Amino acid sequence: MRCLSAEASVEKSVLLASAILTCDVNGRPVDMVKAFKSLEPWDTVSTVMVYGFNLLDQVPDLVVGLPGVEHVDLSTEELKELHEEIRTNTQLRGGILKTESECLHAIAQVCQRHPTTCGASAEIGQAISKWVEGIRTLGKTGCCTYPETDATKIEDLEFMLIALFRFLGKDVHTHVTVPSLQQCNPNAAIPGAWECARFDLDARVYAPTMTKIYATALSQIEYDERMGKLAVPIKPDHHYTFC
After folding, report:
1. What angle do CA 79, 67, 98 make, to 5 degrees?
2. Region at 193 (left for phi over 0; alpha for psi -120 to 50; beta for the rest)
3. Contact 63, 16 (CB under 8 A)
4. Nearest Cα residue to 189 out of 25, 12, 1
5. Which residue from 28, 97, 103, 196 has the fewest beta carbons nearer than 10 Å?
6. Which pLDDT belongs to residue 11?
7. How far is the C-alpha of 125 from the C-alpha of 110, rounded, in Å?
8. Is 162 helix (H, G, I), strand (E, B) or coil?
9. Which string of DSSP letters, residue by residue, matches 171-201?
10. Average pLDDT, stretch 136-164?
């Protein structure tokens, strides 16, 4: 894979009304919070997912994904098509839910450990913590178990990109790409890995029967060196096992 040694920097912006969580829709950066908080739930899992995005909508000053990049507002028709794809594609829904849970898990840790400095109200902090506890019962593998970082404020959270997952639609031009993340301490993440992993995905030749592919952002050795005491075994593909 080109740029295999590059790692992710999921950087931050400031003065934002709500959190931004980047995904890629047909090659364009889209804010998952904005795109999915309006999704009409149809079962228990989708209800939990939508509620989580509405919680993120109340968390200010955090960009997880691609800061400094203008996120595209999908048209009404595009948003409708994306929501319908989530309804019919359980793999995509699982990927979105796991990315969402990774972000909210890190926020919950800061709210629980540093309630006076985290930057969120006690009500929001408690709601996020309850959401994380609830999501653990939905996952078919261990989730929301990463060690906490040194961050004392939500806005100081940083994330390591583990991999990018691309969920394929009806043709090679229709796809949604979501990140697999882990919270990390400052200076562990390095800018450039998102672009590098995306380049690897773009260079792939897709078979007609393929529904999902992924590109890792770094090796286990590189990850261990960067993450230090926060390191865990990397198993990117096992994350996407929600119903």
Report:
1. 60
2. alpha
3. yes
4. 12
5. 28
6. 40
7. 9
8. strand
9. STT-EEEEEEEEEE-TTSS-TTHHHHHHHHH
10. 86
Neighbours of 136 (CB within 10 A): 13
Positive or negative, the Cα torsion across 224, 64, 49, 71?
Answer: negative
Summarised one tens digit per residue, pLDDT across range 27-52 is 999 999 999 999 999 999 999 999 99
Q: What does the alpha-carbon distance between residue 72 and residue 32 come to, in Å, rounded to a whole number? A: 11
Q: Determine the pLDDT at residue 209.
A: 84
Q: What is the DSSP letter of 203?
A: T
8 vs 207, more confident: 207
Q: Among candidates 2, 90, 93, which has minimal Cα distance to 39?
A: 93
C-alpha 164/C-alpha 231 separation (Å) is 19
Q: Please, are residues 227 and 182 in contact by the beta-carbon 8 Å criterion?
A: yes
CA 204 vs CA 7, 197, 207, 242, 243: distances in Å: 20, 11, 10, 26, 28
Helix (H) or strand (E) holding 223: helix 220-227
The model's pTM is 0.88
User: At 86, is the secondary structure helix, strand, or coil?
Assistant: helix
E strand or H helix that includes residue 93: helix 90-113
The angle formed by the CA atoms of residues 150, 14 and 156, to the nearest 5 degrees, is 0
